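hey can u check if this looks right to u? its 294 residues, i copy pasted from the old doc so theres a chance i mangled smth
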Amino acid sequence: GWGIFIISLLPFLNIIRTPHLVSDRYLYLPLAGFSLVGATLALKVRSGLRPGRWRWLFNISFIIVFLCWGTLIRERNRVWRSPRRLWGDVLDYAPGSVTALSNLGSVYLEEGNFPRAEEYYRKALRQSSPPLKLAAVYTNLAEALWEQGRKDEALRTLEKAIRVYPWSPRAFYTRGRLFYREGEVVPALKDYESALKLSPYNYLVYDYLAELFASLHRWEEAEDCARKAIDLNPDYALGYDHLGVIYANRGWLEEARRYWRKALDMDSKLESARNNLAALESGGKKEANINPYR
């Protein structure tokens, strides 16, 4: 039992120092060995007691310990039910954790609470962290600023991310996305190409490139990039939806239908694919006004 506990826990004892926080999930497997030792000792102690009051008291004590342990497990499970609770709990134990601060900011960003996201990203930036992580936080902050309409500040923040760590593909393609949204196609294309040099197998960058080429009606290049995106990530349902849009705009409606159905097979909640397919089924491209690539 002790062997299972120690061997299972060994990779997480930080003998060779790593930047990861200590987390209770690392104890899931080792606790099997600990529980085996505890149960064996409990049985030995109980078997050594004479039948009667002492054995009865031991049984009651064991049940109480079991219930207390179960209550603690239930409370920890509540923490793990929500990302906000989880990272808030981490910050209670490690208030200066850049990972926890940044991840909690990302939770608020996903919820649409952009000022709150900005607050946590700025707290993360006040902590000491390696360049790679610092660039990631700057990139996250830029997204929060952009969503608040502070576009110039967002672009300046991305420039900081690139200066801090010039090898961050995400900083480049995020800046490319912002340029593209502003209709600045040339700098967007340049940033996407820079991102691909750093991360040549990044399916998202190929998808963004497909979007850019589609907006210019350069359909063959858009198709090539969209195909590369789903080749690199065959489970990327949105990529099949986008490829369907490209085919619809090229007049290849049967191919478009096939890819939209495939997208829905992979993700039945993908609204864009459902709407595009419904538009096609209701009368085809001309009558239904298939949505352009977005």
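Residues 285-290 have pLDDT under 50 and may be disordered.
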